[in-house]
Amino acid sequence: MSGPPNPFDFSDFGSPASNPDSASSAGFGGGNFGGSPMDQRPPFDTFGDSNVGDTFGSAAPIGDSFGQATGLEPAHGQGLFAPEDIAGPPVLWAGIAGAAALIGLALALLGSSAFGIAVAGWVIAGPVAIGLLAVYTAFDTKQQTKPFYSQPAWTAYCYWVTLAVALAGVIVGALRIAYWAGTR
Asked: In tens digits, what is the pLDDT along the chain, a chain of 184 residues?
């Protein structure tokens, strides 16, 4: 009884060559089919010796397959992309929303005796500040669709702090308005 077949037995596909030169002259599979494809390629030097022919041709300028410029050529003295090509969050809108939330909270805190100031604080801290945060989110989402986007970690904290201050302004303004309505 014989053991399991040898997975490395390729005797059905041709006789093994006794030297490396006979393998290339015999062709693929022991038959002569025009020689080995390895015989038809140009010589290649691993270490880049200039005496051997250039395998890949000379260096071509940056372009597409047809030699047309792609617009990705680096400017003189720069890398492939300039820092202004990297998109980021619209911090101006976050700052405006934060300022509106702070102003609304301050007005709501000062509006203990005046109904109009409490309402102004509630409106600025509520619909205005939260609406500005929505504009910030919409512009930030648009920026995130660009090829290169980098968001600093502090912008997420600013977003949540602005939202918390706006919520505090809405609550304080609503309590001041309710206090005013309850005492009249």
From this structure: 567 888 888 777 766 555 555 444 444 555 555 555 555 555 555 555 555 555 555 555 555 556 555 555 555 555 555 666 788 888 899 999 999 999 999 999 987 778 889 899 999 999 999 999 999 999 999 988 888 888 888 998 999 999 999 999 999 999 999 988 888 7
Residue ranges covered by each domain of the chain = 12-39, 90-183
| Alpha carbon distance 175, 111 (integer Å) | 10
130: tokens are: 């939260």
Residue 128 has a CB neighbour count (10 Å cut-off) of 20
